[in-house]
Amino acid sequence: MSEKEFQQGSISIHAQNIMPVIKRWLYSDKDIFIREMVSNGCDAITKYRMATGAGEENLKVTVTVDKEAGELRFTDNGIGMTKEEVEKYINQVAFSGAEEFLKNYTGDDKGGIIGHFGLGFYSAFMTADKVTIDTLSYQEGAKPVVWQSEDGMTFRMTEGGRSERGTTVILHIMEDEKEFLDAWKVREILEKYCGYMNVPIYVEDLSSEKEKAEEKEKHEAEAKEDEGKEPEVKDVTLPEPRPINDTHPLWLKKPSECKDEEYKDVYRKLFHTFEEPLFWIHLNVDYPFNLKGILYFPRLRRDMGGQEGQIKLFNRQVFVADNIKEVIPEWLMLLKGVIDCPDLPLNVSRSFLQNDGTVRKLSAHITKKVADKLHSLFKENREQYEGYWDDISPFVKYGCMKDLKFHEMIKDILLFKTTDCKYLTLEEYRSRNGGKVDKKIYYTTEMNRQAAAVKLYTDREIDVAVMDTLIDLNFMSFMEYSGGMDGWTFVRVDAAIDGLTDENASDSSLNAEEMQKMFRAALKDDKLEVKLEALKDTGLPLMLLEDEQMRRYKEMSAIYGQDFSIPAKYTLVLNRACETVKNLAGMPEGDLRDKICLQLYDLARLSSRPLESDDLRNFLHRSSELASLLAARETGK
Q1: Scanning 106, 162, 272, 342, which has the fewest C-beta atoms within 10 Å of its C-beta?
Q2: 3-state class of 54 per DSSP?
Q3: Which CATH number goes with the domain that contains 260?
Q4: Looking at the structure, do residues 255 and 208 belong to the same domain, yes or no?
Q5: Nearest one of 598, 603, 302, 585 to 453, comparing CA atoms
Q6: Residue where a domain terminates, one of 156, 191, 225
Q7: What are the C-alpha distances in Å from 617 to residues 346, 399, 607, 612?
Q8: Are strands 128-136 and 291-297 parallel, antiparallel or unpaired?
Q9: Number of domains into which the chain is organized
């Protein structure tokens, strides 16, 4: 062993067993090694600040891409390491340098230590076939140290030649991982994971000007291919020397210090969109846990089909993952935003998260803050809240069904939009319509198609709710069975005629049994149920009612891709107060009467759904025949 060669040997704590685990299972995404290397550099700088009280001098982490040498280099001018510290924090895998430092440090500011200089460092071996550490401690008289390993299980330490405080970690990238020597890709990964770290991070590309030009051309072509897809802010040029990260993100500031335009800028930057959010919630909690963040309410598609939000989880400004359902309530995944919680470790199993008390409290707190925001909007600016409702109602309804506690929190501010564009709470609907209806909320799923039935109610000053989103079918059933409706139910306008009949109408000579026989014969349906009622709208000849629960069951089955071949259950209501029906009853049997019966029946069907295939062809042909008969009668031919 030479004079300057300190040591060589095997890394302790059964590294032979640990390395395969690190390489395959510890990290789900291979590119996360870049986050770990940069995190360690930021930790080293934070330690230096804490140990020396250094102010905002030129402290930074630089990531150097050297394609010719096949290397990625991560350099910081932080605290550095002595030979003894390298042995402890690198060779003894079980130790965490950050945790050990905090244990011995007596200062007040312990908030900046991110990683665990141990397992995190060994993520380098996922893409590198040789890793070198070149370090010099800030301590006076310390000697520089070079540590090197080709497999993460054996190492060699020598005295180095470094003269500046700090550490450089050199990764010689494997042949089949050369994509990580693309400066644009490295920058993209850094922006993803490290875009908000608290230490300035720079990218240095040592490629030749020709190589840079070729890479730029390649990435411009990729950006062009993305045209026509979801708008994305794509920068295909590496910037002049400036940090790639924002070291003071908006979510760490007090809400009173933030402007609306700043919130919108962060939204556009985080989610690569030109759209603006509807509104947002700024989370700022120090007790009983540390939680910072911003939740944005985006405009939601009405059917929510395939739509998913994006909530980024950070740990002390270090990106961890998107949409961790164990931390964020599942129904909040339709939102977009960022949550920064240092009480959660960077790398942890989902089984741990599922059983962690802090996670449960955090999830409950986020739910409460969303409910509080909705309440404040409702109380302080009802008009604005109503303006948001069409966009946020699918999300709110979904949240109610997924989280009963959330439903309990906001049930009094759930709105029902009516056909005349009023927005009513359940209590307001009851108050306005209680004397006119028998504990029923009448609704329409297609206002234009069901216009005739809607008019029957609105003419009687009965409010009709518009329930036309995909989630409404489930939501109505949820509301009826959740116990909050006080016996009220939802009924579509073409499912009942309560309140539409005229009890004072004079008796008619029409015979219900004869009319049923007439229509059954014309329609060739001996099971059709026919009723005679005096409707207040004397111009409407008939209505076709479909059983509410049977129709819901069929629609639900169709949504979930099931076909139980459930027969439709209709009731034909003939308006005995309508002259058309009276005249029809007086017609002699024959082809013309049958055609008129069929035509009236199809018109009733059209008020709730379109005719298709043979039914549509027959309707059009019959309409032409009846028009010809009428024309011939008028011209005397």
Answers
A1: 106
A2: coil
A3: 3.30.230.80
A4: no
A5: 603
A6: 225
A7: 65, 44, 17, 8
A8: unpaired
A9: 3
Question: Is there a single domain that holds both residue 54 and residue 158?
Answer: yes
pLDDT in tens, 105-136: 555 544 444 444 456 788 888 899 999 999 99
| Domain-located, residue 517 | yes
Bridge partner list, 135: 145, 167
What pLDDT is stored for residue 18 in this prediction?
54
Is residue 221 domain-shared with residue 259, that is, in the same domain?
Answer: no
User: Which amino acid is it at 135?
Assistant: T
Q: Quick one: which of 148, 123, 249 has its CA closest to 194?
A: 249
Compute the distance between CA of residue 125 and CA of residue 131 in angstroms, rounded to an integer.
Answer: 7
CATH number at residue 95: 3.30.565.10
* 158 plus 305 within the same structural domain: no
**Does residue 546 sit in helix, strand or coil?**
strand
Alpha-helix runs per DSSP H in 195-345: 209-225, 260-271
Residues 96 and 192 in one domain: yes
pLDDT at 287 (0 to 100): 79
Question: Do residue 221 and residue 290 come from a single domain?
Answer: no
* Interatomic CA distance for residues 219 and 238, integer angstroms: 11
The predicted structure's pLDDT at residue 115 = 44
Rounded to an integer, what distance in angstroms lies between the CA atom of residue 309 and that of residue 325? 12
List b or e across 139-153, with b for residues whose CB sees 16 or more CB atoms inside 10 angstroms: eeebebbbbbbeebb
- Distance (Å, rounded) from C-alpha 171 to C-alpha 64? 10
Answer yes or no: is 520 within a domain. yes
Give the model's pLDDT for residue 400: 94
Question: What tens digit of pLDDT does each residue of 78-91 get?
Answer: 999 999 999 888 88
The pLDDT assigned to 307 comes to 58
311-329, pLDDT tens digit by residue? Answer: 888 888 988 888 777 777 8
User: How many whole angstroms from its chain centre is CA 451?
Assistant: 34
Identify whether 190 is part of a domain: yes
Domain housing 145: 5-225
d(CA 136, CA 205): 24
Q: What's the token pair of residue 603?
A: 């018109």
- H-type alpha helices, 344-450: 350-355, 357-380, 382-402, 404-410, 426-433
Q: What phi-psi label fits residue 331: left (phi over 0), alpha (psi between -120 and 50 degrees) or beta?
A: alpha
Same domain, 153 and 255: no
Low-confidence ranges of the chain (pLDDT < 70): 1-7, 9-28, 56, 93-119, 208-216, 219-240, 300-308, 345-356, 506-508, 561-567, 637
* Same domain flag for 67 and 165: yes
Q: Please report the pLDDT score of residue 48 as a whole number.
A: 94
CA 419 to chain centre: 29
**pLDDT for residue 113:** 45
Whether the predicted model's global pTM rises above the 0.85 cut:
no
Per the domain annotation, does 285 fall within a domain? yes
Whole-angstrom Cα distance, residue 468 to residue 472?
Answer: 7
Q: Are strands 440-444 and 489-492 parallel, antiparallel or unpaired?
A: parallel
